[in-house]
């Protein structure tokens, strides 16, 4: 993606976030709005530093869980929660902690498939979630080669 596209996405999702925040003040029980707000926060998290991204993802999870309290079977909210937990897991270097987030993601993807079985995107998300922990492990190896080399030299 080019910088203009990234900037356009940033503006679009920031506008969506602000619109959802204003709508929440008028109707805090609007599950559709809470889902849009959580989704916007999740998209905006991609433009942040890792610590800020994690915080924004946790805010998104909070909004999405709030949406599920209002409407427990919303398949789009469940799917979005799966994505939020997956995103958080990839920003978590500790394998055991990341595994917890991946497991939560898998549960939400499964619930989304249960609610909307014909949705191919939900099915694919569930399928990929089963393989993602191994991918996370290899990503951690790739992004920390100096640490591993040092460890191998010490032992």
Sheet/helix structural class: mainly alpha
> Which spans of ≥5 residues are poorly predicted at pLDDT below 50?
145-155
CATH class of the largest domain: Mainly Alpha
**Strand tally:** 0
CATH fourth-tier homologous superfamily of the largest domain: Tetratricopeptide repeat domain
How would you sum up this structure, described in words?
This protein is mainly alpha-helical and 155 residues long. The protein has two domains: 71 residues, Serine Threonine Protein Phosphatase 5, Tetratricopeptide repeat (Alpha Horseshoe); 83 residues, Tetratricopeptide repeat domain (Serine Threonine Protein Phosphatase 5, Tetratricopeptide repeat), CATH 1.25.40. Helices cover 83% and strands 0% of the residues. α3 runs antiparallel to α4. The longest helix is centred in the first third of the chain and has 24 residues. The radius of gyration is 17 Å and the shape is globular. The termini are far apart.
Characteristic terms for this protein:
single chain, 155 residues, mainly alpha, Serine Threonine Protein Phosphatase 5, Tetratricopeptide repeat, 2 domains, 8 helices, 0% strand, disordered C terminus
Topology (elements, then pairings):
Blueprint: H1 3-26, H2 31-44, H3 50-70, H4 75-90, H5 95-115, H6 120-129, H7 132-143, H8 145-154
Helix pairs in contact: 1-2, 2-3, 2-4, 3-4, 4-5, 5-6, 5-7
Q: Care to give the gist of this entry?
A:
With 155 residues, the protein is mostly helical. It has 8 helices and no strands. 33% of the residues are buried.
């Amino acid at each position: 993606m080019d910088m203009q596209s990234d900037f356009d996405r940033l503006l679009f999702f920031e506008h969506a976030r602000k619109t959802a925040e204003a709508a929440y003040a008028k109707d805090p029980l609007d599950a559709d709005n809470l889902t849009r707000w959580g989704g916007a926060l999740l998209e905006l998290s991609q433009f942040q530093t890792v610590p800020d991204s994690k915080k924004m993802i946790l805010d998104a999870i909070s909004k999405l869980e709030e949406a599920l309290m209002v409407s427990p079977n919303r398949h789009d909210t469940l799917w979005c929660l799966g994505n939020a937990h997956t995103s958080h897991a990839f920003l978590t270097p500790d394998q055991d902690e990341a595994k917890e987030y991946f497991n939560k993601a898998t549960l939400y993807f499964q619930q989304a498939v249960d609610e909307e079985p014909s949705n191919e995107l939900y099915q694919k998300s569930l399928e990929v979630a089963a393989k993602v922990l191994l991918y996370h492990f290899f990503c951690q190896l790739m992004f920390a080669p100096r640490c591993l080399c040092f460890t191998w030299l010490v032992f």
